[in-house]
């Protein structure tokens, strides 16, 4: 299960980064902000997965 969660988190980070970059290029601050939040959420979830692995 942990590998699936890590892959989801990575996908969320990549998607967020893409939205953020697209928002910057297009000048859409709302899209840029949503992308940044999505990427940050993926980063936090990934850190939690890494912590769980370290405690095992």
TrEMBL record:
Region (Disordered): 1-56
Residues covered by the CsbD-like domain: 5-55
Pfam families for this protein: CsbD
Basic and acidic residues bias: start-end ranges: 26-42
Domain of life of the organism encoding this protein: Bacteria
UniProt name for this protein: CsbD family protein
Organism: Pseudofrankia asymbiotica
């Amino acid at each position: 299960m942990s590998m699936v969660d890590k892959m989801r988190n990575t996908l969320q980070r990549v998607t967020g980064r893409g939205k953020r970059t697209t928002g910057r290029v297009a000048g859409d601050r709302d899209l840029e902000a949503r992308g940044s939040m999505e990427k940050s959420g993926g980063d936090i979830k990934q850190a939690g997965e890494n912590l769980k692995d370290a405690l095992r």
